[in-house]
Design brief:
This protein is of the alpha/beta class. It has a single domain, classed as Rossmann fold. Helix content is 39%, strand content 10%. It is built from eight helices and five strands, in the order H-E-H-H-H-E-H-H-E-H-H-E-E. The strands form two sheets. Strands 2-1-3 form a three-stranded parallel β-sheet, with helices on both faces. Strands 4-5 form a two-stranded parallel sheet. The protein is globular and about 50 Å long. The termini are far apart.
Length: 215
């Protein structure tokens, strides 16, 4: 699991370097669905604008694809998409309540992520959605592992990569024998939770205050 803050170019440079070291059999992207990923053959464009047009990347609201080019440039193996419908996720226990402390912590994180403007009654829904996304990413990653063998890399946000309750925990629930390494990336000394390995970018991305959108 190679985590990231989506808009930090240094995180994608680190992911690209790790992909070269790991030499995975396949790379799974949180940001792509299977149909988009199927467009990425060996002759895929190396130009960011052409790649954006091929994938419809910016239309989906992700940061500029140019900062992801170190990742794409490092990949010489099949790319698979983890977005979209995932089929039967019943094995992941999504209908089971979380421990009270974990539920409360997750709701507090969702409140902070949305600048405190979400009504309290909506927070459980956002937590449930996060759990469902983690299960979907886990299922897609396991599909890649079954098809191509180890090692497989997943590119996803830090929240999904965290070992304690993200994709690694979802994988452990259904396939406990699989070894998973969670890499999370901080900014300027911040330490994201749940990483087996923690990397640090020297500076945060140049970004506006995300709470401006809620004011």
């Amino acid at each position: 699991m190679l985590g990231e803050v989506h808009d930090n170019p240094a995180h994608h440079a680190a992911q690209g370097a790790l992909i070269e070291q790991i030499a995975p059999t396949a790379v799974v992207f949180e940001m792509l669905d299977p149909e988009q990923a199927a467009r990425l053959g060996p002759d895929r464009p190396r130009d960011p604008q052409a790649l954006d047009a091929l994938l419809g990347w910016s239309e989906a609201g992700w940061p500029d694809i140019a900062i992801y080019m170190p990742v794409f440039d490092a990949i010489g193996v099949p790319v698979l998409g983890a977005a979209g419908e995932a089929g039967d996720l019943s094995a992941y226990g999504l209908d089971m309540p979380l421990p009270e402390t974990e539920q409360a912590t997750r709701e507090a994180l969702q409140a902070d992520a949305h600048c405190g403007v979400l009504p309290a009654e909506l927070l459980p829904q956002f937590v449930a959605r996060q759990r469902a996304v983690d299960a979907r990413l886990a299922a897609r990653t396991l599909d890649a592992l079954d098809r191509f063998g180890a090692p497989v890399v997943l590119i996803a946000g830090n929240g999904h990569a965290r070992a304690d309750w993200g994709v690694p925990a979802a994988i452990a629930r259904v396939r406990p024998g699989i070894e998973v390494v969670a890499v999370v990336q901080g900014e300027e000394g911040s330490v994201p939770p749940g990483g087996d390995v923690v990397l640090d970018a020297p500076a945060p991305a140049d970004r506006p205050d995300p709470c401006d959108a809620f004011r």
